Amino acid sequence: MSRVSKPYEIVERALELSTTDGLVVIADEHSSANLRWAGNALTTNGVTRGRTLTVIATVDGAEGTASGVVSRSAVTADDLEPLVRAAEAAARGAGPAEDAQPLVSGVPSSPDFTDAPAETGSEVFADFAPALGDAFARARSGERELYGFANHELTSTYLGTSTGLRLRHDQPTGTLELNAKSPNRTRSAWAGRSTRDFKDVDPAAMDAELAQRLRWAERRIDLPAGRYETLLPPTAVADLLIYQLWSSTARDAVEGRTVFSQPGGGTRLGETLAPLPLTLRSDPHAPGLESAPFVIAHSSGDSASVFDNGLPLAPTDWIRDGKLERLTTTRHSAALTGLPVAPAIDNLVLDGGGERSLEEMVAATTGRALLLTCLWYIREVDPATLLLTGLTRDGVYLVEDGQVVGEVNNFRFNESPVDLLSRASEAGRTEKTLPREWGDWFTRAAMPALRIPDFNMSSVSQGV
C-alpha cells in the first residue's frame, strides 16, 4: 500500500507539491451498492469503490488570475505530482479567468477531516431486500411482474485549499425505481423513491400502489390533445421546478436571456409569480434532504465557480410566498449584477401550505381531470419563456367526479414551469419525491402535488 493513501493525506500532499499562487484539491471517495430485478426475481447486485481527485491551480498575472482544472480517477501517491503539474500547466497556459476571485478563507475546519471515508455496501439493503422478496411473492400471486433497481451511493468529499480550508462532507444518495407490468406487457405503472439509507422505503406499499394503477388501466379511454385540468404528482412537479432552478442564474436574467429577465432591462426579482403562497427553497440542512453545507465546484459554469470552493451555504428562498426572491449567483456574478451571493444548493423544496395528499386531491375533483404518473424526455423549447416540452409516461388516468375511471393515452406537453406556478389552483401536501427525468443528477427534492386547471397536452403520444 502506498504510504500516502488516505484521502486527507492525498489532499495535503497535493497542496505541498504546489508551485502556483493558489491551489484547491477535491478528493471524492465513492462507494456504491445496487440491486436489479426483472420478472419478480433479482438479476444482479454489486458493490463498487473508487476515488476521483480534482486539482484546481490558480496563477496570478498582470491581466488577472488564470485557473487550470484537471481531474483523474484511481489516483495514488505516485500520480500526485504529475496531476498537480498538469493543473499548473493548464493554468499557466490559460488566459485570465472571468470568474476569478480570491480563494475562500477563514472557514472553520471540519473536525472529521482526517477520518476515514464513509462507505456503503450490501448491508444497506439488509431490511429492504427481504421486504422486496415479499413484494415479489405478492406480485406473482396478483399476476403482475415487477422490474426495477435500487442504488445507494456514498461520497465522502475532502476539500483542501492553499488558503487553509480543510472541509469534509459525506453525501448518501439512494434511489429506488419500481415498475409493474401486466403479464401481456400492455399495461405499465411506475413508482420511485429517494432515500438516504433505505430505512424509509416500503416495497409493499409501492407494489400496492402499482397494483391499483394497473387495475385502473384495465379500462382504456382515448382522448384528443387539448387543455385539461391536470393533477401533477410530486415527482412531475420536481422535474419541472428543478429545470426552473437550473435556469435561474442571475447573470443570464440581467443580460435579458431568460424567463426571469425584465422586459426593457433588469430582472423580475420581487415580482409575484404565483397567486398561491408558494415558497421554493433550498437548505443544506433540510431534514431528510441534507446536502453539502459548502460549495463543491469541480468546474466553473453559469451557476458555479471553482474560486468559490468552500464558501458556506445558507438556507435560501428562491420564491417566497409567491414572489421571486433570489436568483442563483456566484461571487463573481453577484458582483457583476449587484445581487446578493446565492450559490446553488443540492436540494429543492416547494411549500404551498396544502394539507391534502394526492389521493385526497383526486377525491376532491369535480368534473373531469387527468392524473399523471410522471414526465420524461423534457427538453427546452424557448429560454425566454422557459417553455418546455416532454412526454407523459407509465400511466395517465382519467378522473371523473373524484373517481379514477380508466387510463388514457399518453401526451406530449408544452408548458413553462413559471407559467404553471401562476396558474396553479391548488397545492397539496409537501413530501419527499424522486424526480423521474432528472433522478440521475438531482435526487433531493420535496414537492406537493399541483392542480393545474388547463395543462397543455399539445399532441397525442404513442409512448408508454
Explain what you see.
It contains nine helices and 20 strands. It starts with 6 loop residues before the first helix and ends with a strand. The chain has helices at 7-17, 77-92, 128-141, 203-216, 234-246, 250-254, 331-337, 358-363, 417-423; strands spanning 22-38, 41-61, 64-73, 145-161, 166-181, 188-195, 220-221, 226-232, 279-282, 316-320, 323-324, 348-351, 368-382, 387-400, 403-408, 410-415, 426-427, 431-433, 445-447, 450-461. The protein has a six-stranded antiparallel sheet with strand order 3-2-1-4-5-6. A six-stranded mixed sheet has the order 11-10-9-12-19-18, with helices on one face. Strands 8-13-14-16-20 form a five-stranded mixed barrel.
Task: Please give a handful of descriptors for the protein shown.
6-stranded antiparallel beta sheet; 6-stranded mixed beta sheet; alpha+beta; 464 residues
Percentage of helical residues? 10-25%
Q: Please tell me the overall pLDDT.
A: 96
The sequence of SSEs as H and E is HEEEHHEEEHEEHHEEEHEHEEEEHEEEE
Which parts are unreliable, with pLDDT below 50 for 5 consecutive residues or more? none
Distance between the termini: 51 Å
